[in-house]
Write a structure and sequence with these properties.
alpha/beta, 7-stranded parallel β-sheet, globular
Length: about 240
């Protein structure tokens, strides 16, 4: 039984990844803090179109107790997590000096603390089984930084360092830990951009377009299928942008 856990799975890259991995896995567990019913819609669609079991969990992935309870319930039902995709994340656009301490703390908790929570919860079973795949969704801004997205850039830089360090720690247990530094992906995170701003952005990208979430999901699927010898990598997927 192959079981994948995907955070931030109610829309965008996470949603597309859930649909993609449902074609390849026996069970896909999906998490989101959004209570708009979209997570259940994704689960119902997977049930209707694949043979994959889909288990939705609605809650705050930055809450350690919530994550631990979800992972334990999966293991108890015969679905220990062997693949983790840490996709949950938020971005706050604006001048750094205008960001409040509460806003800074919030982006740290959702973008970084959540990764600690999920990894901490799934690693024991992975070590016990001597197999695992952890893929952290990062950003090119974690590599080069972005004006007016200082906190977001900082969190993605932290994810990159965490990925490289954790990969060394878990390699003896045949657990691969990698990250994808995505460029511009056409998701709600970029919904603040006007049509003209998107056009200008695409002109900066050699591939001349933003990536579709479905393209991002295919990239995720291929990386998860790689041998565990590929570990500790921060792989760019940005159309040649950065």
């Amino acid at each position: 039984m192959k079981t994948a856990l995907i955070t931030g799975a109610s829309r965008g890259i996470g949603e597309a990844t859930a649909y993609q991995l449902a074609k390849e896995y026996d069970c896909v567990a999906i998490m989101s803090r959004n209570t708009d019913g979209k997570l259940n819609t994704v689960a119902n669609q997977i049930h209707a179109t694949t043979n994959c079991e889909c288990i939705p969990f609605t809650g705050d992935v930055s809450d350690f107790a919530f994550v631990e309870e979800c992972v334990q319930s999966l293991a108890a039902s015969g679905h220990p997590v062997d693949t983790l995709v840490n996709n949950a994340g938020i971005s706050l656009v604006g001048l750094f000096q205008d960001m409040t301490p509460d806003e800074f703390d919030r982006i740290l908790r959702i973008n970084v603390t959540s990764v600690y929570n999920t990894c901490h919860a799934v690693i024991p079973d992975m070590v016990r089984n001597q197999y695992g795949r952890i893929l952290n969704i990062s950003s090119v801004w974690g590599l080069v930084g972005a004006s007016c997205e200082v906190a977001y850039s900082a969190t993605k830089g932290a994810i990159n360092s965490l990925t490289m360090a954790l990969a060394k720690e878990l390699a003896p247990s045949h657990i691969a830990v990698n990250a994808i530094a995505f460029g511009a992906v056409d998701t709600t995170m970029n919904g603040h951009l006007s049509v003209e701003e998107k056009k200008t952005l695409c002109e900066e990208i050699p591939a001349e377009k933003m990536a579709a979430p479905e393209e991002a999901a295919v990239c995720i699927s291929h990386i998860l299928a790689m041998p565990d010898y590929m570990t500790g990598e921060i792989l760019k997927f940005d159309g040649g942008w950065i």
